[in-house]
């Protein structure tokens, strides 16, 4: 059975200036995570990936957020549960790590007291036993001299160490699922590598599954087993990381890969994506990416494509995914000059030429 | 290599930290900024790269060593000479939103350097601003808006226009794409590449992201704890690093790679798992 099953998740927020408008931010998002699996949720800022995670954790304020659909942990529905039930699950069976460790830790308590508090909120253990487990956990996340650090306050630690403490807090109850929302964005590359190794090894050792939210495809490629790409609040592509990143089935994922600076692209132009993500509530009837897509044809504007099988375990929300195969691969992993010469057979929409940059590259501005 | 516009030798920058302590942010760095060349500075936070470029612009005083421009020490420049130096080198910062005055129209912010440096008449300034807008790919109606009405990429274009309006020979970009999403990052990198060609600019490009800095730079300086640990042509530094620290930095870059890239943690927990 799946550990986490998110089905038709829909989130909208009420706008105090416009009480009638409730355009959904997350739209019919469905995915499953198996026990022990590391699942990457990828998207640009505003794509809805963090809201998806917060909704799954039950952390959205019910006064402003309207959440529908289903989130099940081991078959148990979390979305419409009672506050107390949710509190028992959170921090115990599922826990979360955020981007900023300083705001996740309480500045006036020692890290030791925060660790033991979490443990004793969920487990009947003595103070000494809690302390022993906390020190053990600090050691496990690579804090040197954990006995001494137990009494340290967050401000006495470096950013990388603080994030280790936050990870220790999240893992101390041995959760079945860890949700990590851009946990390494605020740290240096060498520290990032250590933290990701830590997440991977700690979770593998304890059998903890991970929902890892990031905008960084490099991180996903090295950390995750399966992934989903989000665009404008919905999943446009999902599958095993190898398959999605090597041979993407959706032009948006391919474009993101084509935009990455890489050694073989040095001195060449990078792929840019013209236009803008549609504002929630103004999505066109057809494919939401069509007006920015290098491969859009007339049919793309007609009906909103479903997330359909696209070979192997890959699913893509693109009408042309079957016929585009090689063209998408070239877009993702070639250089612009190469892709122009090797993909001449692909029909391009003249209004949305992928390689343009300049006056209209930023597209429409905000209303 | 072409002649150097700004030349720094053995630059040291110290900051006072409390009564009897000081922090050495930059510790004896040599750097040249040759005309029409892109120089990349890579290093982790606290390595001194931002302080170094501020010293190159005389925005922070150097404690010892020298920064020279046209054979003169920039710390001694006054009056008209200082204005001329300010028009030689300009800077684009990381966060375009906080770099623009929220209460002013984009156009006002773009014209401001000319106003502050008392260059041209009002009409000349506006004409120049229009040219700059075209150059960075913004329209006049967008420039008449306020920062919150533009996207991150558009705001960063405005910041680049503001830096270029005084016709500098050197553009310093301090993490100028770090706050942008991948697609916008690609757009700004493409724009900087174009501008460099069209305007014969020298670039000093700071980033903590090696793939970004290597993409645009001809020459790399790897900084660590205030010192340059390695310097050389980009290809050479990235392909055959000579220093242990550079190797470590290269190894920590997570790129979407070929089939040989193992999963993190593979080898420690499950040796059988590698990318197929």
Task: Please tell me about this protein's structure.
- The complex is a heterodimer of chains A (367) and B (276).
- Chain A has 367 residues and is of the alpha/beta class.
- Chain A has one domain (1-93, 175-367): P-loop containing nucleotide triphosphate hydrolases (Rossmann fold, 3-Layer(aba) Sandwich), CATH 3.40.50.300.
- Chain A has helices at 49-56, 83-89, 101-104, 111-122, 127-140, 146-149, 159-171, 189-206, 217-223, 241-246, 251-258, 321-333, 336-342; strands spanning 4-13, 24-33, 38-42, 65-73, 76-77, 94-97, 177-181, 209-214, 226-231, 234-240, 308-309, 315-316.
- In chain A, helix 4 (111-122) packs across helix 5, helix 7 runs parallel beside helix 8 (189-206) and helix 11 (251-258) runs parallel beside helix 12.
- Residues 339-367 of chain A have low confidence and may be disordered.
- Chain B is an alpha/beta fold and 276 residues long.
- Helices cover 36% and strands 24% of the residues of chain B.
- In chain B, the strands form 2 sheets. Chain B has a 6-stranded mixed sheet, with helices on both faces. A 4-stranded antiparallel sheet of chain B has the order 2-1-4-5.
- In chain B, helix 7 links the parallel strand 7 (170-174) and strand 8.
- In chain B, helix 6 packs parallel to helix 7 (182-199).
- The termini of chain B are far apart.
- Residues 266-276 of chain B have low confidence and may be disordered.
